[in-house]
Task: structure prediction
Amino acid sequence: MNKFVAINRIGCIPARTKLASVLSWAFLAPIGLGLLSPSSRADEGMFPISELERLQLQTKGLSLKPKEIFNPNEISLVDGICRVNGCTGSFVSNKGLIVTNHHCAFDAIQKVSTPEKDYLADGFVSKSQTEELPAAGYTVRITEQYEDVSNQVLSVVNDAMSASDRTKAIDKRRKELEKEAEAKNPGLRAEVAEMFTGKTYVLFLYTYLKDIRLVFAPPASVGAFGGETDNWEWPRHTGDFSFLRAYTAPDGSSAEYSPNNVPYQPKRFIQVNSKGVDEEDFVFILGYPGRTLRQRTASYFEFEQQIRLPEIVRYYSWQMREMEQAGAQDRSIALKHATRYKSLANVEKRSRGQLLGLTRTGIIEQRQQEEEKLRAFIDSDASLQKRYGGVLERIGDVYTEMTRSAKQEIALRELRTACRLFSFAFAIVDAVHERQKEDLDREPPYMDRNLPLTTKQLQLDVNQWLDSIDDPNEMTGWMKSTRLGDAAFALECLSKTPQQLASVSDPALKAMLQLYPEYLRLRELDKEREGKLNQLYGELQDVKQKFQADAFVPDANATLRLTYGRVRGYSPADAVVRTPISTLRGVLEKTTGVEPFVSPEAVLAKAKRKEYGPFVHPRLGDVPVAILYNTDTTGGNSGSPVLNNKGELVAVNFDRTFEATINDFAWNESYSRSIGVDVRYVLWITGIVYGADHLLQEMGL
Result:
């Protein structure tokens, strides 16, 4: 019997099997099946959806049964959730309409904006599907099937292997399984995800939709109101939402953009509830959170605090200052740098928040105390001492070794990413060398199954880089003499052999060819470290299972998860209380007419005339803008639906509070708060302010 759990695909309904028996071991075997009992589990957690039955959410306030959220044998709520590039989105109609964050759609908006048609500044409203604009470089990913493949992955490793060989063997086996799965399931994309470090692996199959279009975006003065000043802060008054639409070929298959394509018909869409929620209401989130690092040791957190995070803040701040100066007097330049600047600013502020959080919360000291107790437990038993003795010290040795050369390594990596020209040169040089290897031995971007997407992205990036140059005639040095700004030339270079590439007379390529051996050395070093740490963290999890009665859920890894909580305020400092709902009144109070607190005249006019429509909060007597809740989220949850106890959409998650930037490392009820734009503000802006009533009607309102 096929062990895959198959959810309806485009155009067919494959056979299904029950998931709980397949995945329970994958998620829980390393930590014990008592993990999720109400008596032992805190509210912290981004839970694999296979474990919903164990959460007993109906005792917490959920009206739905677990199988109404996820059911391997029927269509359920998770079928309305998708991943939009690095964010999450929700299908909110049966015509492929997706709501996600404005900052998730930002790159698409920026790419179609010009000084003459500045959709970032003015917003974009399509009156019909024919007016919708292609979102270049965007894909939508929908989870279809998955199964535990831990035994198959780990069958290729043994204790005699070096750390580097162990990493390579696991990587190759994961790629083999992905390739085999795609051959058996034409049209789907496969990915083997590591759930517990070095211990458990799950193979996911996804539908990838490649024709995504921009439908509606409010002006940036709504979608990014408050800018970087308010980013990671509460209260927020940001309408951080946009609408996209997914399309397929007429036969329902995934296809590149074509005017002949038709709107995608999701198996399920999320019903929007225009009444929203109030303080202390139960809410839950389904989404694709990025990577968390909560099971790491004190030595890892010390490395972050002392080395990596300060370096990231320093490099990103410098890049942002350069962009600010370049775009200060010219809107066209500012537009071209907008996406990159926004990304840098987000990471820079998050990193500062994490540094502050590591100091304020005492995570390192707490982890050190926990580890001392664990050492004592290991030392109390000779068999444990023989198997696990020194595991914490060996993990610490890896981070000590990394510390010695970290600043030089970070500088070299940042050179490759900060300088767009160098990133293109590296991609070309790396691809040419990797393509000389057997397919399964290559780095993933250059495998046959991935190369078309890699090539397409390179072409988009090159074109965007050339567009970002204000005046090509004023370029100097490498920028003036390189031909990498010519997408045709860049693609031609990809087809060459290493020997042929070395003979190309291009200064950027020649510089990268000189640096390339150093980047290869770093790659091998990373694989060696990864191999050591994966094995050591696997041992650490084993002994923690023996030591802890209340074990842990796996760190987030961009796979589908559920988290739950309540609409709730918090106290970030002595004598400071933050209530959990902001309103339109706050938009008016903050609006100064000076960036980043500029509001569109259309918003101000409707607000001053109190043209609220049906979107008024009954207790507050105003249109709610954003809500605060104590769910457990991280990066990747941007755009996730915030759902009420009936599974209806009441907000779109877009941020955390500054104190909660530490969520990647730890979660705490007292300071971990997430922020969503209230659905009533979404509907008020869309329908009443900008007149897109057809979208509200499409959503069944």
User: Anything to note?
Assistant: Residues 507-547 form the longest helix (41 residues). Residues 1-42 have pLDDT under 50 and may be disordered.
